[in-house]
Amino acid sequence: MQNSAPPSGLPFMKMHGLGNDFVVIDQRGTPAPLPAALIAAIADRHRGVGFDQLAVIESVADADARLSFHNADGSLSAACGNATRCIARHLMEETGKAALTLVTERGRLACEDAGGGLTRVNMGPPLLEWQDIPLARAMDTLELPIPGSPTATGMGNPHCTFFVEDAEAVDLERFGPAHEHHPLFPERTNVQVASMIGPDHLRMRVWERGVGVTLASGSSSCATAVAAARRGLTGRRVRIDLDGGTLEIDWREDGVWMTGATMHVFSGIFTGQFLETAQ
């Protein structure tokens, strides 16, 4: 691969939100091309670094930064809540700001320091109409004509939420891919299984489109909270326990706010040798 990175290599950061992990590449300086083959090589947890999503930070005139996201299979994702929180925390520490604005395909997202080391992001209003999620044809998004009557929600990416008696009992490795590719979802879908464990308190597990089982998902948590409130199972402010930890979701008039912990694990540099072979 020619002229894809400076001679010293390509710097990156490894971050996670509740175990939902990311490789973050800061392109605000000298941008370097990120072809699909390189993204796939980085995603390899044995020969690369591994990630659930790869996030790219770019400069933008009217906000603090622009973010874009790639799934582990190389496909694009318009939204990634946990990566947005991780990068917001990084930029707040870098600039000293307690609040900032990030631009994604989802739109302009307000981010703020929630105190106690937590970071809060407004993921925007949920998309509730079939054509916006999108679904393949017109239907009621509250209860889809799929066994289990799941709820469909758009958070910049499509979500299909099943409310079950016991989320722990679901074989997600089988259940997830069977529904990710359901014909009602022309762009595939993220799949959640959720069960009630107390008032305004849910247990949720996630199958991410283009990734697989993940320890957490911010946009999935937002979609599940919206679905639970629409079905009258909870109020609009809920606690969601995922495999990797807990998120607080608050569906307000201005959007769905998500609060949780973040971690910048390490920073590194992809070597010239790795970049040359990842073609």
Structure in words:
- The protein has 279 residues and is α+β, with helices and mostly antiparallel strands.
- The protein folds into two domains: 10-122 and 262-277, Diaminopimelate Epimerase, Chain A, domain 1, CATH 3.10.310.10; 151-253, Diaminopimelate Epimerase, Chain A, domain 1.
- Helices cover 18% and strands 39% of the residues.
- The protein has a 17-stranded mixed sheet that branches.
Would you kindly provide a brief summary of this structure?
The protein is α+β, with helices and mostly antiparallel strands and 279 residues long.
Walk me through the topology:
Blueprint: E1 10-17, E2 20-26, H1 36-43, E3 53-58, E4 65-71, E5 76-77, H2 81-95, E6 99-104, E7 107-115, E8 118-122, E9 151-154, E10 158-163, H3 172-180, E11 190-198, E12 201-208, E13 212-214, H4 218-230, E14 237-242, E15 245-252, E16 255-260, E17 263-270, H5 272-277
Parallel strand pairs: 2-3, 4-6, 10-11, 12-14
Antiparallel strand pairs: 1-2, 1-17, 3-4, 4-5, 6-7, 7-8, 8-16, 9-10, 11-12, 12-13, 14-15, 15-16
